[in-house]
Amino acid sequence: MPFWKQFIVCLVVIAAGFAGWVYFVPGAGETLRKAGFSKVSKLAPDEAVPQLPASGEGQSRRRGGGANAPVLVATQAVVRGIVNDRLSAIGTGDAIRSVVVMPQASGTIREILIKSGDRITKGQVLAKLDSEEQVIARGQADVALKSAIEKSSLYHNIKSSVSRMDVFDAEIAEQGARLQLQAAELNLERRSIVAPIDGIVGIIPINIGDNVATTTPVATLDDRTEILVDYWVPERFANTITVGQPVEATSVARPGRVFSGAVEAIDNRIDAASRTMRVRARIDNASDELRAGMSFNVGMKFGGDRYPAVDPLSVQWDSQGAFVWKVVDGKSGKVRVSIVQRNPDYILVKADLKDGDAIVTEGLQRVREGGGVRVAGEVASNSEPATQ
User: Fold this and answer.
1) Which parts of the chain fold into alpha helices (H)?
2) Nearest 5 degrees, angle CA 60-CA 370-CA 362?
3) For the CusB-like beta-barrel domain, which residue ranges apply (predicted)?
4) Which residues of the chain have pLDDT under 50?
5) What is the dihedral of CA 235, 241, 247, 252, to 10 degrees?
């Protein structure tokens, strides 16, 4: 393209940009006036634009009112929001009573009377050890007792022929024989491994013929009529949770089911490393749906802390911090706020606000301290014709 064509195109572009600036920018007239231009023509057919007014006057005309005309805004009423009203924690369940059964004596397993999953009662025999030696010892103690009883009875019948010391020795021998028999019977009784509690048998780790000691696990018993769930809560709930407070628990193994319970115990200290406190809840398991070792999501409800809730769009910032515009009697006023919690639909704040206060959410750019405002909803209602 020749140079003179390029030059003409540039002039046209500059003229068009200047005309657009004059027409659309509110402060263009004031700028031209200060630069020494008294009149500017707009690019309109067969019409010239009169002298540009001052910027304030031009803005007022374009906005459809004077400098003190009320600003059209939209508002939303303040409501009360609650924070710290729920607690959710992960816990681990355990049976209300759980025992690892071990034999009270060493020996060889001769008989196993239970199987995994059996529901047993306290005192039921689980397994038996070899007991031949103990049976013999009990028989010997029984014979010794009978001999001691006969000797003591004979000495009592012939007191006149024997000394009092001999009679006393015979009585002592009888008592010793009785104790020996009791010890033999106890040793024989310990050859039977019995259940110390009611419960359900787990997997049995022994077999017939195994040689066991007093530290060898024979079976595990769980009384899971109730489940204890231990979980940890943040430090701020330390003075809020009380014994007996209701809890709700859910388990991955039982989706959709909610199990009710109550706080059973609260630890007496805060863990310094995690700044949490241990809490134990008791959950009813009469239906036997839960197992020890399950993970639970424990939920608790509290009264919570109440704060004013405002629309996220209403919160503005300046050099002094956050604030909102409150409308009172058609006037806007700035209220300082401190943000407590942000949520997708509202923001909880600390501020001098009451329920029902009108807070500006739209038209914020033109709102000023003490300036007049018109609420959009009120304008619409005033424009409707009155009904007879």
Assistant:
1) 3-24, 28-35, 55-63, 132-157, 164-189, 376-383
2) 70
3) 232-299
4) 39-65, 379-388
5) 10
Instruction: Tell me the per-residue pLDDT of 155-186, one tens digit each, with 9 for 90 and over.
Output: 887 766 777 788 888 889 999 999 999 999 99
Point out the domain boundary residue: 163, 180, 212.
212
Count of domains for the chain: 4
Nearest one of 292, 188, 279 to 232, comparing CA atoms: 279
Nearest in space to 221 (alpha carbons), one of 93, 121, 98? 98
pLDDT of residue 187: 93
Rounded CA-CA distance 328/76 in Å is 13
Same domain, 298 and 310: no
What CATH code is carried by the domain that includes residue 350? 2.40.420.20
Give residue 287's domain range.
88-95+220-305
Q: From 305, 332, 351, give the residue that closes a domain.
A: 305
- Chain centroid to Cα 216, Å, comes to 40
Same domain, 227 and 287: yes
